[in-house]
Amino acid sequence: MNTMFLAIFLGQIDLFMGLFIIVLILIFASLLKPKKSILPERYWWWGIGLKLIGALFISLIYEYYYRGGDTTMYHLGGKTIYESLGDSFFAWFELVFVGKDNIDPNVYINHARKIYFWGDEPTYFVCRVLGITNLITFGSYMGNAFLFSFISFLGSWCMLLGLARMFPHIKRYLFLGVFCVPSVVVWGSGIFKDTLTFAALGFMIWAFLNITIFRRKFVLSWIVLALAVLVIQLVKIYILLSIAPALILWVLLIYKDKFKNAFVRFVIGPFVFAMAFGGGFYAISYFGQQSQRYNLESLAYTAETTARWLSYMSAVDGGSGYSLGDFDYSTTGMLRKALPAVNVTLFRPYLWEVKNITMLMAALESFALLCFTIYVFYKRGIARSFAQMISEPTILSFLVYSLIFAFAIGISTYNFGSLVRYKIPMLPFYVIGLVLILYPKPKRVVRKRVRIIRKPKEVESFVLPNNRLEWK
């Protein structure tokens, strides 16, 4: 048994600080709770409860099943940063806010070189965040796990709030899609990179809708959008590469539909798709330039090396690897495997591929998602479903993002254990896209105001004997 990891969870500080942080979160949540909201108050508390349960569940899984993992190393790295305060505040500040190329040599020798993820900026970002949260939790793993889950809740709530303003008729299903997908509950709540990027994605969607659609809270929304994009860019830039084309397509289609003339909408439609394609290509190029691994020239190489490494680790562990068959990692070679890659992300592992308990949970979720997909297309009909996709910008944009993302991680992961974590930024969008096909937005009926003209009552008169008029 990994006694080092065992001590992380079974220490007295984790029991005490875990309960203390839960109480602190509930108090803060009661103060932060919106007084007036389009969403029922119970969704607020249900969302918090699900995130806290998810954090506790995955922590126990890593304790008693995996016997440690990357979350352990995040914790130890964050604890090293926290303990550097015993040396000096300057050392702590450098470890949290200064890049690896500018770190003070003494700080590196005394502290930084002890951190396992030092030098890997996307991964070390989690340690930086833990270095800050440890000021509240005093180095407690469970305390930090609950704080991470609350950060994830806030981002998820913002996403839900923005979408509920657009589609108030399916608020219940939006809540289920954002908060209740099992892998999102579990893997989006613990001390992981996925938790932070999922929260940032939620904040980004909220800010994007405020700026482009609702046109409200501009200053706050721009600040939130900039910070959210920065976090995703630092930690998992491929999320930005996948969602940028879909967001551009989304807003262009929404503004196209504002034209009342059907002929005008038909004429400008191709231009909208051309602009979305061009804007998406530019966004991919721009964000790709910020990362050597994910620029356009290196994408194929990155996909190949990542796939081979994860496939090798699966073979070593005797674990949950998968294969898409033989193919070369050129652009055309990968495109030939687009359908198998999307299929493996959305609907695998199949139930007969299960090798362990965690694969069983993933297989049950994938089977449920497959059944729901079939049900939606059966219920609405294939023709009506595709017509609904084309007519509703949100459905088309969400499914475009989901398919791009599913292809990207399906072609490069080759391990079911990693895949179930990597795909959580896509799952709510795919589920909500299907829900919108099943329950389309009611069309507004414009009623013409009819002016009713009433005839005045006829007035009769007669003449009295004294020649005076008298009216009836």
Automatic annotation (TrEMBL):
<feature type="transmembrane region" description="Helical">
    <location>
        <begin position="196"/>
        <end position="213"/>
    </location>
</feature>
<keyword id="KW-0812">Transmembrane</keyword>
<feature type="transmembrane region" description="Helical">
    <location>
        <begin position="357"/>
        <end position="378"/>
    </location>
</feature>
<feature type="transmembrane region" description="Helical">
    <location>
        <begin position="218"/>
        <end position="233"/>
    </location>
</feature>
<keyword id="KW-0472">Membrane</keyword>
<feature type="transmembrane region" description="Helical">
    <location>
        <begin position="173"/>
        <end position="190"/>
    </location>
</feature>
<keyword id="KW-1133">Transmembrane helix</keyword>
<feature type="transmembrane region" description="Helical">
    <location>
        <begin position="6"/>
        <end position="31"/>
    </location>
</feature>
<feature type="transmembrane region" description="Helical">
    <location>
        <begin position="262"/>
        <end position="284"/>
    </location>
</feature>
<feature type="transmembrane region" description="Helical">
    <location>
        <begin position="422"/>
        <end position="439"/>
    </location>
</feature>
<feature type="transmembrane region" description="Helical">
    <location>
        <begin position="43"/>
        <end position="65"/>
    </location>
</feature>
<protein>
    <recommendedName>
        <fullName>Glycosyltransferase RgtA/B/C/D-like domain-containing protein</fullName>
    </recommendedName>
</protein>
<feature type="transmembrane region" description="Helical">
    <location>
        <begin position="239"/>
        <end position="255"/>
    </location>
</feature>
<feature type="transmembrane region" description="Helical">
    <location>
        <begin position="398"/>
        <end position="416"/>
    </location>
</feature>
<feature type="transmembrane region" description="Helical">
    <location>
        <begin position="141"/>
        <end position="161"/>
    </location>
</feature>
